[in-house]
Amino acid sequence: xESKYVSKIFEALSSDVRLDVFRLLVRNAPAGLVAGDIxxxxxxxxxxxxxxxxxxxxxxxxxxxxxxxxxxxxxxxPLMLDIIAYLTAECCSGNPECCRxxxxxxxxxxxxxxxR
Amino acid sequence: xESKYVSKIFEALSSDVRLDVFRLLVRNAPAGLVAGDIxxxxxxxxxxxxxxxxxxxxxxxxxxxxxxxxxxxxxxxPLMLDIIAYLTAECCSGNPECCRxxxxxxxxxxxxxxxR
DNA sequence: GACATAATTCAATTTTTGTTGAATTATTAA
DNA sequence: TTAATAATTCAACAAAAATTGAATTATGTC
Lengths: 116, 116
Hints:
The structure is a homodimer.
Chain A: H1 3-12, H2 16-27, E1 33-34, H3 35-42, H4 46-59, E2 62-67, E3 70-75, H5 77-88, H6 96-105
Antiparallel strand pairs in A: 1-3, 2-3
Helix pairs in contact in A: 1-4, 2-4
Chain B binds a DNA duplex through α3 and α4.
């Protein structure tokens, strides 16, 4: 995998609107949600949501298919796992013991971390 | 509010330069590297690298400390694991079996994923 | 102290993103 | 076939990010 390609995927998650959309779709995997429901859940104007959904689809993190007059969006869980594998590849030069030790320290829920 | 904080972290990984820097530091965890070595490895102009390192440090994904006249940068593995947990939280919420199936088919070392 | 080295900050410019309302396309229902 | 609904595209503007070279700060060496 090319870092230019992967950075585009992280760019898709670099807006709080898109991150919220993606997490909503991850929670609602594998069924996904139609655009109107996403807009309702997250209270984002339709026109702005379209802009962000387009970016997510272009990144590959989200897929879309027509369903009558609705558009159904789904998170691509395999791609999500791929970028996690990319990010963590050869962590600590492949020393799994070192990584596991970090893992034990990481049980901070980012939801509760202070703002910067 | 929380997603604004996490999206800033993904923003830090949304440039291919910064993504390359971060992965280099992940591979070289836990020791890290000094700025000049990063510049040499990745062939990035010092002034531009400083700009990107600053963004990484501000996101919290990278830490820095002075070492004589060198600056040593290190990846924050615990924060990396936290944002992975944030991204994958409640995946396939109603259907954990579905989520386990996705994981089994992926290339992710389970060390880096929260239990499900 | 004077000089070299490591790295950063600053200022200027260019490029890219995000947001909004109005107009448009696609589909279904009356 | 007309109207209603779902969603997108378009155009305009506002805001933020990337890049560069010159100047600056901090540290170590002669």
